[in-house]
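Let us work through a complete example step by step.
Step 1: write down the sequence.
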Amino acid sequence: MKYKKVLVLAPHTDDGELGCGATINRMIEEGSEVYYLAFSACEQSVLKEFPSDILITEVKEATQKLGIKPENLILLKYEVRTFNFRRQDILNDMIHYRDLIKPDLVFMPCSNDVHQDHETIYKEGVRAFKFCSILCYELPWNNFSMTTSMFVNLDTKHINAKIEALKAYKSQAHRPYANEQFIKSLAITRGTQIQTEFAEAFEIKRILY
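Step 2: predict the structure and record it as tokens.
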């Protein structure tokens, strides 16, 4: 099944790459137009040794490494860990970009993501995009459970593109999940579940065909 227009909802810069970076790369390779909407560059939580806006520079580099066109990257300026106080504004932004882009498929955090910002993006995302196909990506460090109801078969080149994209986030290199071994191991685990080398897994919220 091929989608013409795909929209990735990333609560924070790098969430989209972590959750579905290799799938994004494969979809672009197959001709999909992919848009990336990040709601926060987390300027309030960047380590002191980096410029506060470093994640803006990093997400531009990372998304280009996945094949996303620079003009398809949209950066909003919500403060990290405050999304639940801005729900209506976030919903309004989602509706604006829904009507502007008209995506066939939307990626967003999964329904059991415990991060407060991710939870808000999921809940408002389902409202805004209820007439689109919706796949929810996994971020295991935030997920107490995950219904892996869809798998995307991936080649080595797609996983390598994801790894290279995440290397752009030098300001996030201290995170325990921001390393090549973890990214590849998770892809191998998901691949094993469908008898292939690599995969990414998703929770199906809605599929329109």
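Step 3: interpret the result. Residues 5-206 form a domain with the Rossmann fold fold (CATH 3.40.50.10320).
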